[in-house]
C-alpha cells in the first residue's frame, strides 16, 4: 500500500465506488430480467444498455486502484460490504418503481463519483480525475433518461 494518506483515501473511495458499480449493475440486470407491463420492451432494452455501461467501468475503476498501488475488491462479499446501493430482492416490483429506484441510485452514484474525483485531485492522480468526468456524464445521462420516463 502506498504510504501517502491522500492516495490511501483515494483507493478507499475508488473501492467503494467500484462496489456501487457492481451492485447497481446487478440491480439493473435484475430489473431487465423482471420488468413487466406495457413498457416492457423499452424498459427491458434501456435497462440492458445501462447495465452494460455500468459493467464496462468496473474493470477501469479496479485497475485505477491497482495503478495507484492499492488492492481492490476480491469477491461478492467484498462488494456487499462496500456498496451503498440497496438490494431489491422483492418480486413483482412495479415498472415505474424500478425506474425511480434506478434514477435515485444513479443520482447517488453521481455524488460518489464527485467524491472520487475530489480524492483523485487531493492525491494528484490526474488520470482518475480526468476519467471521472466521463463517468459523471454517463451517470447523469442515465439519470436524465430515467427521469424523463417518469415525466
Ligand atoms: Fe438480456
From TrEMBL:
It comes from the Bacteria. GO terms for molecular function: ferric iron binding; oxidoreductase activity, acting on metal ions. Residues 11-150 form the Ferritin/DPS domain. CDD domains: DPS. Gene3D superfamilies: 1.20.1260.10. Belongs to the Dps family. This is DNA starvation/stationary phase protection protein. It comes from Novosphingobium fuchskuhlense.
Amino acid at each position: 500500500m502506498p504510504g501517502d494518506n491522500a492516495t490511501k483515501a483515494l483507493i478507499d473511495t475508488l473501492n467503494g465506488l467500484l462496489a456501487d458499480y457492481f451492485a447497481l449493475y446487478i440491480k439493473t440486470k435484475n430489473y431487465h430480467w423482471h420488468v413487466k407491463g406495457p413498457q416492457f420492451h423499452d424498459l427491458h432494452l434501456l435497462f440492458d444498455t445501462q447495465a452494460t455501461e455500468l459493467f464496462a467501468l468496473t474493470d477501469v475503476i479496479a485497475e485505477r486502484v491497482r495503478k495507484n498501488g492499492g488492492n481492490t475488491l476480491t469477491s461478492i462479499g467484498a462488494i456487499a460490504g462496500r456498496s451503498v446501493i440497496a438490494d431489491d430482492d422483492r418480486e413483482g416490483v412495479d415498472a415505474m418503481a424500478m425506474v425511480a429506484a434506478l434514477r435515485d441510485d444513479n443520482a447517488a452514484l453521481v455524488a460518489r463519483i464527485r467524491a472520487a474525483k475530489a480524492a483523485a485531485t487531493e492525491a494528484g492522480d490526474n488520470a482518475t480525475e480526468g476519467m471521472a468526468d466521463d463517468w459523471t456524464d454517463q451517470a447523469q445521462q442515465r439519470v436524465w433518461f430515467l427521469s424523463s420516463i417518469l415525466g
